[in-house]
Amino acid sequence: MNVVSVLAKKYKVVALIKNESNEKVVKDIDALSSGTMATMSGIKNYQSLDRLQTAFGNFVYSSSSSFDTWAHAWKAWMDKLSVRVNSNTYNVLVAQDLEDALEGII
Length: 106
Known about the structure:
Helix content: 55-70%
Strand content: 5-15%
Order of helices and strands: HHHHHEEH
Number of domains: 1
Distance between the termini: 50 Å
Number of helices: 6
Number of strands: 2
Structural class: mainly alpha
Largest sheet: 2 strands, antiparallel
Strand order of the largest sheet: 1-2
């Protein structure tokens, strides 16, 4: 079984990588440590970090965009997960940000 097949199984994706240049980036994401993921996200729970890493891998795996590095992919994913309310930008990964964003809407 090749690396792409293993990653496809892990990320529960049946299609091939949409952009073959992302194959290395997906492998790099798979190798990120929990400490790196915790530092980037602010999340400390290991189960949540695993789910976050899988979601991040899925984003890159299924993206038609090409990323040079996992860091470039992370920035693109964070931009996608950001919500703009009035003149404020909130990231939905951060619970307080989500609450603040909802307050701005409600």
